[in-house]
Every structure is written in structure tokens, then in C-alpha cells.
Amino acid sequence: MKEQEKKLGAPLSTLSGVGPAIEKKLQNLNLYRVEDLLFLLPLRYEDRTCIIKLKDLIPGIRSLVTGEVLDAKIAFRGRRNLIVKISDGTEVLTLRFFYFSRKQYKQFETGTNVTCYGEIRRNKNTLEIIHPEYRILRPNQRPSVSKRLTPIYPTTMGIQQGRLRNLVNQAITIMRNTSPDDLLPKKTLLKLQLPSLEEALLFLHQPPAKTNLIEIEQGTNKCQLRLSFEELLAHYMSLRKIRLQSNHDKSDALINGKIRIKDFIKSLPFKLTNAQKKVNQEILGDLSKPHPMMRMIQGDVGSGKTIVAAIACLKAISSGKQVAIMAPTELLAEQHWENFSRWYKNFDIQQAWLSGNQSQRNRNEALQNIASGNAKLIIGTHALFQEKVNFFNLALIVIDEQHRFGVAQRMALRDKGIKTSAYPHQLVMTATPIPRTLAMAAYADLDTSIIDELPPGRKQIKTIVLPNTRRNEVIERVRIMCSKRQQAYWVCPLIEESENFDFQSAESIFSILQSSLQELQIGLIHGRMLSSEKEKTMHSFKNGDIHLLVATTVIEVGVDVPQANLMIIENSERMGLSQLHQLRGRVGRGGSQSHCVLLYRSPLGNIAHSRLEVLRQSSDGFLIAQRDLELRGPGELLGTRQTGLLPQYRIADLVRDAKIMPEVQNIGQQMLENNPEKAALIMYRWLGDSDRYVKV
Questions:
Q1: What are the strands, taking DSSP E only, across 358-476?
Q2: Mean pLDDT in residue range 467-486
Q3: Given 3, 169, 377, 396, which is the most exposed site by the fewest CB atoms within 10 A?
Q4: Do residues 547 and 570 both lie within one domain?
């Protein structure tokens, strides 16, 4: 074994001060080996490199100061306080302690010199530090300062900053003697003007005194970029590995079939757009290969993704195979059931339905038909990949709203379909246009098709931004439109009133509108309703029996009502641009001019105003998504912030580091093909032993 592996690859127990108890606590920070400490990067830095005179202190700034104790006393001002006054001859500063011992109190004898560090606060006319870090100086001892900025690390229960710094310093000492492998190609480092791995790690753990902290905070330092590149590379290669593996997996090549796809397309009451035709050819080409398709369709709301998926499904079914369509909500799954039933009405295709809310009897019947192969088209929610579901010959999986599931869940459904070593094809769809750099990072395991054309005759939705003080005017507009046999949505973020939020709730708005528009039929729909209740309300709305539908954002997906030409959205300033754009896309499905009214609560800040202005001026989903990505980040854009479906990066940032993603993609592909051993080392360094993307 190499000397390097003996040390950097050694367990943490080999370090001084790490016993079994501490080792277990360090594992909470995903620290197992000595090298892991090198990649535990500081959250921030403190400047303890110079002593600030008391007269120059600024409230809100953490500062290192020194002075002579003038007075120390215990006071009772609502609670027990230790108040220490110090001076350096230029000004007086108060040190305040709420938790202290008798021993501490005695340390602050008059005339004693002390050095302390903490955040400067203003208390009436004086400055103070609450619970400073401090050191009592011996007689004639000069205060010491750090030569470097002090790192502040993420901690866990029972591990203090001092101990972590000590352990990291031990790891750095080992690194100085045995440098870690620099796994990136030298050409890449030169091209991007990046430092070596050792240089980057040394700098980030021990930045020099004059380091530009603003640059560090913004994440634009070259040393940070060096590590961001490698981390993005690890995640990218992990996903690409899945994709490359699929090229070796066997799948049913769907070449023949009883139904001519061309005849089906001709039978449709509308013509496919050129974008739909292009994507359709890409998909049919993939399905004809003996390796599983892994393709994502991106397209704005209303671009016609579902009919393209329906053509793919028909190809599989006509070849005697089964198809599974999975949606994140019952409402969207029900919409697919309705659409596919209408499109396939001239074909003898048995369908099955699976959801979490159906009766046991219906569920057992569906499971039996799926297992026997009688059911060729299976539609449902996440219930599709549960243990009791057994497919007969599943050849194609269609997943709608891909970002609501994640790679692991897709792989779980894929594994359900394995039959005699043949993997099912995968087609995933999203109505959230995904900026290119984000797609590179988050969906590297998928080929991408984009439907960037709306059906002919679709008019651009006119968007109006109004304060909620003009709600009565909007109500009157609803009255006029609905009197002309048109329909409207009124969308609210919450179901009911909440003490924590001042959003207009769906239930309160429903009551207001019922009182104001008594001549109209008004419906209410939200996620807490029973499936049967939602279905009944939606059916009434589609049939025109309900003029105005008050809803939560549950209608973001899955509702097509051609006569609905007006969308009102409450508290639009609190919502993401992509979500607003998707909601807006629920209207304008017919030939009439449609409108979207974005109501906001005053006062509206400059940033919020500029965000809503993007919606008012643009209908380009990709432009809107890019702006949303810049403002809110990938988790918020895709609705995955709290789900764990996107990787949590230690240092990389998909928005900040977008400029290096093309090079990450290029190097990743080269490394997987030409140097898989080095690729494996990079993935192990950043992802550990387990493959986080495919582990279920």
C-alpha cells in the first residue's frame, strides 16, 4: 500500500484525540477517513489577524480587541448578568455574560489585560460584546493575533470548533507530507487557470490575512472553483454512468406492431407541430433499438407533450407490450386517463388504474389484470412501483413531471419492469422548461428532446400585474367574462387561514366570491379534498356547470378547459416565476384571447416588481426558468427544495458555476470513456461508497 493511502486513506481513529465516541460523532458530518477532513470546507471565516482599537469599532462587525479591565460586577437586570468594562485608552467596551461561573467572575480582576473576540453590538449609547471568546493575558504578555483567517466549520453535537480545527490541521500536516491525488487533467487546470488540489485545499482551510473575503463569500475564488469543478464532475459522471450502463442493457426493440403509427397520427383531430414531429421521430428511433431509451421531453404547458407520449405508448402496445404512465398527483393521472381513453377509443386497449386512494377490491382487480398481461395501459401515481405490483411484459415507462420523482424512484419503477433480463424504455416529461446548465447537471442520465413550438392558433396570454386593493375591479371583470359563457380560475396559495402566513386562503376567497358573484356557479378544489370530490368538481368545471373555479396550486398540472380564458393568482409575489408561468398556461387552451391577472400585496419591493415584470413581458418558458433559477436556485425552480431529489452540493452552486458546466460535461465524458479508474476515484472522493443516485 502506498504511503499516501496509509495516511490520507486511514480511518479518523488514527488521528490524535479521536476515540470511538468522537469517531462516531464525526460520522454525522460524513467524516470517515483522514482525507474527508480536507473536504470539510469552512462555512465562513473570521478575521482575527489584527487588533481593532475600541474607538474604531463598528456595530455588527465581529472584531478582535484587547484592553485592561476597569470593573467587573454581577448585576440583576431581569436576569443575572456579569458585566465587565475594559479600555484600551481610546474608548470603553462592555463585555456581557449571561452564563458564567464564580471562577470566571474572579478572572476579571481590575487591572487585568484581556483579549476577546465577538460581534460588536450597540446598547443605548455604549458598545458591547455578548459572550465573547476571551483570553486572560499574563502580566507583560502581549496579545497575539492569527497569521491567517480563522475558519468556521459545520459542526455536530459534541464536536466544538476548536476540536474540528485541530483535526483539520492534523489532516493538513499529513497532506503536506503526502499530497492527495490531483485527479483532474493538467490541460483542464491550465485552460481554466485553476490551482492544484493541494493549493486549493490549503488556501480554503488557511486563507492568508489579506484574502478578499467578499470574493470568498461570492464563491468566485479560483480555489473554490477548483473544488466546485471536481464536485460537479463527480455528480455528472455518476449520472452519466447510469446512462452509459443502459447502452449495455437489453431492451425490447419495438419495430413491428399491429397498428400503423402513421394512420393513428392522421386520425387525430389536429395536426402535429414540426417540433412534435421531430421529437416523435427521436422517440420512435430510440424505441426501435435493443437498448432502453432514457429520454426527457421538455416543453411549455400546452406544447403537446402528452400526445407525443401517447404515440410512443401506442407503438409499445401495438407490439403486444405493456405501458405504465406515472404522474405525481391523482388529478394529473386522471387527466391522462381521460386523454388516453379519448385518443385510443377506436382501439381495443384495456386500461388499469392504480392509486393510493382506490378501494381494495378495485386495486386487487387492477393488480390481477396487470400481472396477467390483460391490462396493456397502466396509469397511476407512485403506487405503480410498490411491492405488490407485478407487470407481465412492461416495455415502456412514461413519467410525468419528472422532477417530482427523482432518479431513484425512476430506477425503482424500471426494476419492476425487468422481465427475462429486458429493461423497459423510459420516457419522462416536464412542463418546467429547464435551463441548459441545470439539465446538464441534474439530468445527465437522460437524452433531451425539446418541444419549443405551440400549436397553431394559440394566442399569447396577456398578463396584468395589479395590487390586491383592486380586487373588486377584477371580480367585476370575472362577472362580465362569465356572462359571455367563458370560465375563470382564481388561484390561492393556501387552503385555509394560517397564523404564520398572510396569504389569501382558497376558502376565504371562495366565501368572498360567493357573496360578490351570487349569479355565478363557483367551485372549490384543493389537495385535501377526497379524490371523488375533486373529480366531481373538475367534471362540472369542464362541462361548463361551474363558471369560476377557486383552487390552490393543485391545478398547476392536469387541467385542460378550453373555455377557461381568465386566470387570477393571489399573492403572486410569493411564488416562483416558473410556477406562475405554469399556472398561467392553464388558460388559453381555446382560440379566444386569454388573460392572467397577478395580484400582489402592497408594498411591492423592487426585486419582486422586476420578477413579476418578467412574467408580464415574456411568454418564453426557458427565459422565465433561467431567471427563476438565478433568483431562487434549482430546488425552488423544480419544486424539490425539501424532497432531496436534487443532490446537495458541498461547495458547488449550479447557478454560480454554470459557466464551467460545459467543460465539466466534456471532461466527464472523456474520463468515463478513457480513464474509468480515475473517474471512480473522483466519484468515491465526493460521493462515497454508495451510488446515491440509484440506491432506493
A1: 377-380, 394-400, 425-430, 447-451, 462-467
A2: 92
A3: 3
A4: yes
